[in-house]
Amino acid sequence: MNVDVLYSYFPKYAEAFILTVKIGWLGIVLALVIGIFSAFVTHFKIPVLGKIAGAYVELFRNTPLLVQLFFIYFGLPKIGLSISAESCGILGLGLLGGSYMSEAIRSGLDAVSKLQTQTALALGMTRLQVFLFVIFPEAVTLSLPAIIANVIFLLKETSVFSAISLMDLMFTAKDLIGLYYDTTEALFLLVMFYIVMLLPVSILGSYAEKKYRYRMLGQ
Amino acid sequence: MSKVLEIKEITKNYEDINVLDGVSLSVEYGEVVVIVGPSGCGKSTLLRCLNALEKIDDGEILLDGELINPGNNNLSRVRQKIGMVFQSYELFPHKTVLQNLTLAPLHVKKADKRETEKEALMLLERVGLLSKKDSYPRQLSGGQKQRVAIIRALMMHPEVLLLDEITAALDPEMVREVLDVVLSLAKEGRTMLIVTHELSFARAVADRMIFIDGGRIVEEAPPSDFFEKPKSDRLRKFLDSFSYEKE
């Protein structure tokens, strides 16, 4: 492996890293917002919205991100909505992730005993207070491992963004390999940057899981 | 004495099962009423109807002269006046003991944080659990959890306390520590409606005993008459089922 090559590639990777992290995390935030909403309407069987959320989850969970990105990126302009590659990446990741997050959070909501709701109601709390202070925090704690797994999965899914010519890590690696054929160096840096991106999430995730789940569940 | 709770001819059906079939009962301030009966007789349902966790199909419930019904837009206010403790404790597992006690007062009553915590610590001390204030529920024994659940209900300053088989899930030696708390509440004049299978405790704590069977009040009497001179066959049979004799 040629260290000079690594050095010369580094700035390009750093740039791609920032873009990947930015789009990845914005997508994840969107996924959480969609997921929480979708889990809420599904769990509480809200008329119409519950059914729509159910259909949404099945649609996005059962199609590849690449296909979803193509639909958004090439499909939306056909109906007059042009969208930048970045927004497309965020939206695609948010919609795919939303379906996964929805299921993760819903499983947590389903696992909280109905008696917790009744107890909180009996203390005089309103339904909204019960949800915000009792049911939702418990559900999220229960779902934490699944949510963290989804975050890691979604960050890795950014690798298909190169298909809509977003200059993410994968795009940069492919590009450099195509130009200079320094496959070893290019792939080495690619792996390193993915690890740098994901390892902290993994570590923080385990820490959060230990802290919040342990105090509630003991393990 | 004036009535805090008036229950008039309430009925409750689950599909075609008649769980409560015209139950009338009134409870006076400071009175302890103990309800016993075979399982499935409707006693838990009765308690749950009182704070509108269950809708009644017919009849009326008056608390302090105010009508309780699930359409009532003051449900929160009504429920604050009726504390309820469940068999399964239902502490909030993600909150510490102290947070369990202060959550509802802080958000529902918008009470002062410092005052509320002070009161919570006082109550914890009273039930001997001050050292557990920062523990999480999973770190407590069943009896400790149930004592916290009782004082959590007290934190809302209810006028009536409903206790629904609160010792049914406990080991025998833990039953004692929980029931001692209830006895001390009775002594200080708390109004309570208690569903229990602990007959000797019932006898000690009750001002009035009620036997429910098949969704109706079958017998109602002071404890001495209730246990020694049961009038109905059904109550006699029920009481007999608690005693054992060697053939």
Short description:
Chain A is mostly helical and 219 residues long. Chain A is 82% helix and 0% strand.
Characterization of this structure:
The complex is a heterodimer of chains A (219) and B (247). Chain A has one domain (3-217): MetI-like fold (Orthogonal Bundle), CATH 1.10.3720. Chain A is 82% helix and 0% strand. Chain A has eight helices and no strands. Chain A is flat. The relative contact order of chain A is 0.15. By secondary structure, chain B is an alpha/beta fold. Chain B has a single domain, classed as P-loop containing nucleotide triphosphate hydrolases (Rossmann fold), CATH 3.40.50.300. Chain B has helices spanning 43-50, 75-81, 97-108, 113-126, 142-154, 172-187, 199-205, 223-228, 233-240, and strands at 3-14, 17-28, 32-36, 58-63, 66-67, 82-85, 160-164, 191-195, 208-213, 216-221. In chain B, β4 and β5 (66-67) form a beta hairpin.
Helix content bin of chain B:
25-40%
- Summing up helix and strand content along with how strands pair, one would put the structural category of chain A as mainly alpha
CATH fold-type name of chain A? MetI-like fold
How many DSSP E strands of chain B? 10
Q: Give the rounded overall mean pLDDT of chain B.
A: 91
**CATH hierarchy, class of chain A:** Mainly Alpha
In CATH terms, the superfamily of chain A is MetI-like
What is the residue-mean pLDDT of chain A, rounded to a whole number? Answer: 94
The number of distinct structural domains of chain A comes to: 1
Structural class of chain B: alpha/beta
Shape of chain B: globular
Count structural domains of chain B: 1
